[in-house]
Fold this protein.
Amino acid sequence: MPVIDLLTGSGFGSLLGMRHALEPDHLAAVTTMVSRERSSLRAAWLGVWWGLGHTTSLVIVGALLIALRAEMPASMTQVFEFAVAVMLVGLGLRAVAIAARQGADGPLTVHRHGTIVHRHTTGTEHVHIGDWTLARRPLLIGMVHGLAGSGALTGLVLTTLPTAGARVAYLLLFGLGSTLSMAAMSGLLGWPLARLGTHQAVARTVTLVVGVATTVLGVVWGYAPLLALVRGQAVG
């Protein structure tokens, strides 16, 4: 394969990854987390971890399918899409519950660091030293999204790129583009939220609106794959 073709395809993969990160289900999932952040830098970091999770599952599953020269079964694709919908509903309901508990200064939460116990508001979460609390949720959410998109993307690269190396490189660059785009978008979302967060009533309203919108999107998103799965079982 000519080097120029590989470079062109790789650049196109990065651009597609950037656009892919801006799809409604991705934005909704990350926004439920970013809506509680009070720093644009921390919000951007959430986007980075989402992108790492997304890229990890995308590359692992995609590389396996490329090695087997196979496409993901339609039933598995529908299962992963439905998993995304369930996750969106869960994130949305969680945000609604947090908003419902929110008081004037946010809900007090009993918190433990080893033998030391203290209280702080949920709206001022902090990073545990030596722990991965900040990274865990967006990483896992990104992995679920990566699984849902791996089948379609792998099918695309199998038909457009001639070698396994080029296909895996395309997946990696697609993931890089997604990560950069989500980090930038999360940081942009975090900038106004960091300023609005000083007003508890506004912060609570934002969390509530985001939670309701994400829940509704999850229900709508899950209808088609659930229907396909039910029909598939009926036919089988």
Q: What stands out?
A: The longest helix spans residues 200-235. Strands lie at 108-113, 116-121. The CA atoms of residues 72 and 151 lie 5 Å apart. The helical segments are 3-20, 24-34, 40-68, 74-101, 133-160, 164-196, 200-235.
